[in-house]
Amino acid sequence: MQIVCRISENGAEIERTDNGISYWHNVDIKSFLNVFNEAVYQKTPEGHVSPLLPLGTLGYKESTGTYSVIMYREPRIAGIIFEERSYQVGYPGIVYMFVVTNQIVATTYMYAVKERVVKPDTELFRYPYFNAWADGRICMGTNHIPIEQPWQLHKMPDIITAMPSNNGLPANNQSGLLGDSLLKAVENKPFPDEWLTPMNKKLKNLF
To answer: Which residues, at least 6 apart from 30, have a Cβ–Cβ distance to it below 8 Å?
Structure first.
């Protein structure tokens, strides 16, 4: 027998395959998480158990009222909005670090990576597009994004790409291009690794 779980904002869907026949069951998300956490606690009662985390999570750490989730998303072609103009551009592999305080995304960091398989010694590079400071922090403007549970951070990369960007902060890559010129150069193309700016930092430094 095989069991597959799919989680969305509307709840959890459980697919059970028995003798080649699939059966689907809808479960509200709170009940699913309670059962999941209880099962984990029973298996490892002596250890610390993290909450359910988004796909691609590399690390999780918490303190009173605050926690951080480090995630990775592979290179892809995706949307970006520059001022009022939309493009489909190549993104390098991206490591995200979200700091959540009192169920609000307080700080977002983004770093580019060249390696497809990330490891502790993977080199970090500056996020090559807009709205980013040199230390990796992303300018989110006045947006205060609520996150009730850590697994909901899966939606943050798409929220960020949907936010309008501009040339308000210095260039973050070595292409020599700015604004629309940069986006047209990578429209529907992979982002060139040679354009990435090193941060002299490794993935393990985030932990």
So the answer is: none
